Amino acid sequence: MYFFDVRDGNPNGDPDAGNLPRVDAETGMGLVTDVCLKRKVRNYVQVAKGCAEGFDIFVKEKAVLNNLIDASYDIPTVKEKKDEGDKREAARSVMCQKYYDVRTFGAVMSTGKNAGQVRGPIQLTFARSIDPITSMEHSITRMAVATDAESKKQSGDNRTMGRKSTVPYGLYVCHGFISANLAKQTGFNADDLSIFWEALKNMFDNDRSAARGLMSAQKLIVFRHDSELGNAPANKLFDLVKVEKNPETVARSFADYKITIDRNSLPTGITIEEIL
């Protein structure tokens, strides 16, 4: 369970709704997509590792994915394969070895020369706010115009008006899952997991934007199973974590919440790590 918050910012705008903060229309709870969070992880790994061998990023800005897939077929271990199925599996293995995000989150790589599909060992849910959020809109002023035509329309000065949407405060929680069996298939290892935890702790500090306000990682709770197949259902473990808000205040900081873990009800074979 990964807790993060936003103050006076837009954590994940919806382009189909004028870039307003995403919200559950029925409950008013704020939403942040898994794609948004994985993007931040990718960006952090790209900066932290500098696209070093084994830590390149497949889905990154300005990448032409088919070209990257096709390049895997130029590797000698792939070229030497005669059967198309063998070539595809060899190319898939090359892509997993080369790209951190492929072996972590998976990828569909059948759009080029076909390197198959990879189901990643790490899967994330949408993050959902603990309480309903309030989406606020603010008028902003720009002391300039973009074109001569706009300038001629203005009377007096060159001011143009705009709007900015923010959430005054919201605490969000995302649930994640790591499959040991899928990790074996993609080559995801302990070092990869270590940098993933590092990314969750630090990625907001490397992704600052005026539009996103103050976003901060607040808590990361990990349930470790003794068995590869799991020692307890994930939902039962998540239920052990309780979040309570101070009823006497309007939440405006993480200090207005209290997170507790019922360790006495922890099933056999499960250990808890509070990484953050």
TrEMBL record:
Protein name (Swiss-Prot/TrEMBL): CRISPR-associated protein cas7/csd2, subtype I-c/dvulg
Species in which this protein is naturally found: Bacteroides cellulosilyticus CL02T12C19
Domain of life: Bacteria
Location of region: Disordered: 1-21
Pfam families attached to this UniProt entry: Cas_Cas7
GO aspect biological process, one term: maintenance of CRISPR repeat elements
